[in-house]
Please model this.
Amino acid sequence: MSPARGQSPRAERRAMTSRPGARFVVYSSSAGGYYVREIRHLLACGLRAAGFQAREADERRGFLENAGWHLVVSPQEFFSLGSGKSLRAAPWPTGVILYNTAQPDSAAFSFIRKLLPRAHAIWDMDLSASKLLARGGWRSSHVPLGWVQGCRLFPPKRMPHERRPLDALFVGSRTARRDRFFRTAAPLLAGLRALVHAPDGPPPIQSSSGAARNTRTFLGLARRAKIVLNVHRRDSAYFEWHRVVIHGLAQGALVISEPTTAAPPLRPGRDFVTAPLKKFPEMILRHISSPRGRNEAATIAARGWRTYRRSCRLADSLKTAVKALSHDEGTKARQARRREQAARELLRGLSTPSNPRSGRRRRRERHA
Model:
């Protein structure tokens, strides 16, 4: 990706993004969660569907050569787990794109913002977070986790709602807020065919085969669930694309979620159900027990499945995001890059051992 002689940086970026079959490598941490590998795989599928070359990798071999663009999924994991820690401080190639999966009010989001001066661009699955980053002057694009035909994460057919054996499903990490809700909802869930999987702490380090088993298990459960529940980690609203869509709408389930941020083209009330957390037991019982509620659940689930597959195509979002890679940054971002560059040059100068002879020569010159 070295610039052609006499070519301006902007012209170079435009040439790179317009080149047919541009090469992408999509990375995630080998020590991270199974769901991050699912996102990595989906993005690679989407890039290929959009006409680009894409391969998947992790941090163990560093940034691979012969790639025009390096797309890092969940940078808070990639640059803090395993050998990714050393990559954070090491030189980066040009063309690094960060793919953010963290909520704007989280520590992970703050971590990612510190990396922005070293990256070429940032893509975000959340619309409001993408706009927030764009207001800071960064090359920020909204790239939601859309549908890709033929991707192994999606079933070719949807199991009819009434034939699904599992009434309700929740998969997510354990938090105090979720603990309080599920303790309250336990009497209701005990009378249903429900499964709650909420392990303590961060996901354990897994081999590729272990992550693949989790993917097969949880997607298999979602494809057999009438309802997938979305309970936020914290009180703030957020659209959890992975749970709501990849393990919910895309598997044909009815999603009952707390109120979310906007996630076009998906709309609450049409493609999924939203309600305050205290109303969840009532909503679950209604859509499982009453004939009218079951019909409504089947209708909304089928509509969400159709909207996602027809109107939320990942290849379309990626084509737009790749074109935006040639755009200029805002003033704030350029200033942040200059400060980052100056700080790194200062650190290199301080870490470079001085020549004793030149030091003695400078001292003699000062005292001459």
